[in-house]
Amino acid sequence: VTMYTQAMDIPSGDRDEPPAKTDEQYEAEFEAKLARGDFIEPKDWMPERYRKTLIRQISQHAHSEIVGMLPEGGWITRAPTLERKCILLAKVQDEAGHGMYLYSAAETLGVSRDELIEALHTGKAKYSSIFNYPTKTWADIGVVGWLVDGAAIMNQIPLTRCSYGPYARAMIRVCKEESFHQRQGYDLLLTLMKGSEDQRAMVQDAVNRWWWPSLMMFGPHDSESTNSGDSMKWGIKRISNDELRQKFVDATVPQAQLLGVTLPDPDLKFDDAKGHWTFGPIDWNEFWNVVNGKGQCNEERLSARIRAWEDGAWVRDAALVHAQRKRRRDCVAA
Ligand code: BYC
User: Fold this and answer.
1) d(CA 86, CA 46)
2) Helix H or strand E segment including 109
3) Tens digit of each residue's pLDDT (9 = 90 or more) over 200-257
4) Which atom of ligand 1 has the smallest separation from the CA of 58?
5) Hey, is 269 helix, strand or coil?
6) For the whole model, what pTM was predicted?
7) What is the 2 CA–ligand 1 centroid distance (Å)?
8) What totals of helices (H) and strands (E) does the chain contain, helices first?
9) Ligand 1 site: residues with CB under 6 angstroms?
């Protein structure tokens, strides 16, 4: 029953429906839903800027998951044991799944997957800066799980309560899987730290290279964050970039101590009065360079995605022809 009543709720000018409401009335209903903490669903009226910013964020998030398969995917054939290979395979496949849910969530806002993918391939759409750094050694795979997935969970848990239903629901499963990813990374590093001097040095070197880029994942300082005002007002973002970054540092420092690695920041110290770990300045020039396409691996990552898309054209063509034939057969049979 709910299904049918929902279907009739779509605002339209159909004959049998009550006259359409004014924009002000729709806006007031939207605001009231947000105030009550209700989800906004695909068929609900929403301001155009809310829809646009959700498409922006959800599609960037989807692209990050898909591009994010590349730094780790290259290590599947080089994993040191069968068990590590199975774990890494599962993790990379999970990231593909996350990308798919997120593209589907973005599609509910009236944009096509082809448009989204084209925006990625032509360099118009962003994806997380972190995936433009190289994974040089096996220890990088552990550090990506520990720090990159760790930062991703910190940022994504509040998104399970974001105001847009399909995005919030996708985040629940994504966060569960990310926590497995983080644990496997930490476990990999614990194993290496119990190994030889060279293995411990390899972990420290990876931590040195990934620490600062991981802090950059949370985005610019709140004062420079152009989208935060609207996104906070609309309940898309619940916790600010700087607050999440601080929570991540506070959670990670004790994990680094347990692991026996040094975080590469001479200014890192516990502030008793604030109850937080304070940290040194972030190199925002490096961040914006990477975001603007000039990171170490931007070209490599984008060309790998374009190549995969072109190589897969025959699969999409075949699926389309099959669907058309099936429809024709079903029509004849009916
Ligand atoms: N990299 O106004 P702001 C994963 C852009 S993947 C690049 O604060 P907002 C995984 C930002 O887009 C998980 N660009 O933006 C996968 C904006 O530009 P536009 C990835 C960045 O949206 C595989 C401008 O800077 N997670 O877990 O309010 C293997 C100003 O920023 C970045 C997500 O995608 C960045 N780091 O806040 C392993 C989370 N930061 O769009 C792991 C979803 C900022 O105006 N996204 N920019 O042209 C978010 O939560 C938010 O979009 C952000 C930024 C916190 C990232």
Assistant:
1) 43
2) none
3) 999 999 999 999 999 999 999 999 999 999 999 999 999 999 999 999 999 999 999 9
4) 43
5) strand
6) 0.93
7) 36
8) 15, 2
9) 56-57, 60-61, 64-65, 68, 95, 126, 128-129, 148-149, 152, 155, 216-220, 225-228, 231, 237, 241, 291
